[in-house]
Design brief:
By secondary structure, the protein is α/β, with parallel strands linked by helices. Helix content is 38%, strand content 20%. The chain binds pantoate.
């Protein structure tokens, strides 16, 4: 049976005795669950005795003019899916429960890792993510927490948060779940029109194309930036507006020397109509 709590106190009171001899996994979400989220829950069930899924559209991670008000809220359908898959608890608080004072005076800042990539166009986003994830960790006190690898920068920031704030929580990264045509699943995909949906897989295709070129060492003759610029031009000409496309080390620090850096990650965000799509691909570059 899946039980839903809106109250922090009631969830805590329920989890406290269970903690003695059971492990707890937390799957933080903003609801509007798709198959990608369900995979996170499935993974959580293999890793812990009790699975708590939080559903909270967190206002502090939305910037001015972003889609906070229109973000799809589908608690009933989400509850049905989570019941079917056998999640134990849903934590679905309202804003007052999570933030007695708005805007919350206490902040969780992530420093330079958040001031790049998505952080350039969404400058307050990761502060909001850091704050809400810290609160969820304190409320649920899970043994493990599962995050999707689609939000690569978010995952890196959460790993940093766990390290810096000494949370005793194992962070588990779940692989990106994709539609058959390669589009990474996201709640925001529903903002795509039918014709945009046809174009959307191009983002992943171009990321894979760039990954292949790097794996084949093409950057040695063309230069890395020329390959990146070509990929951006191809994505834009398909109808996107690329926000960024960069090749970084896996911890999101800058590449020092592409000949030495073996495991890199291609990270991108691009607008397609009203949807801002994210994708990434880890790539092994041969040192020559
Ligand atoms: O990835 C998300 O859905 C959100 O950023 C998270 C981690 C649930 C925090 O609100």
């Amino acid at each position: 049976m899946t039980t839903t709590f809106a109250s922090i106190a009631k969830l805590r009171a329920t989890l406290k005795p269970l903690r003695q001899d059971s492990t707890i996994a937390l799957v933080p979400t903003m609801g509007n669950l798709h198959d990608g989220h369900i995979e996170l829950v499935r993974l959580a069930k293999t890793r812990a005795d009790i699975v708590v899924v939080s559903i909270f559209v967190n206002p502090t991670q939305f910037g001015v003019g972003e889609d906070l008000d229109s973000y799809p809220r589908t608690l009933e359908a989400d509850t049905k899916r989570l019941t079917e898959i056998g999640a134990d608890y849903i934590f679905a608080p309202n804003v007052d429960q999570m933030y007695p004072v708005m805007p919350p005076p206490t902040q969780v800042l992530s420093g330079s890792i958040s001031q790049q990539l998505c952080g350039l166009s969404r400058p307050t986003h990761f502060d909001g993510v850091g704050l809400v994830v810290s609160k969820l960790f304190n409320i649920v006190q899970p043994d493990i927490a599962i995050f999707g690898q689609k939000d690569y920068q978010q995952l890196a920031i959460i790993r940093q948060l766990v390290r810096d704030l000494s949370y005793d929580i194992e962070i588990v990264a779940a692989p990106i779940v994709r539609a058959e045509d390669g589009l990474a699943l996201s709640s925001r995909n529903q903002y795509l029109t039918d014709s945009e949906r046809q174009i959307a897989p191009t983002l992943h295709q171009e990321v894979l194309r760039l990954a292949q070129k790097l794996e084949q060492g093409e950057h040695m003759s063309s230069g890395l930036q020329a390959l990146i610029d070509e990929a951006i031009a191809r994505i834009n000409s398909a109808g996107f507006k690329v926000d960024y496309l960069e090749v970084k080390r896996q911890d999101l620090t800058d590449i020092l020397d592409v000949q030495q850096d073996q495991a890199l990650v291609i990270v991108t965000a691009a607008w397609l109509g009203k949807a801002r799509l994210l994708d990434n691909q880890v790539v092994r570059v041969l040192a020559i």
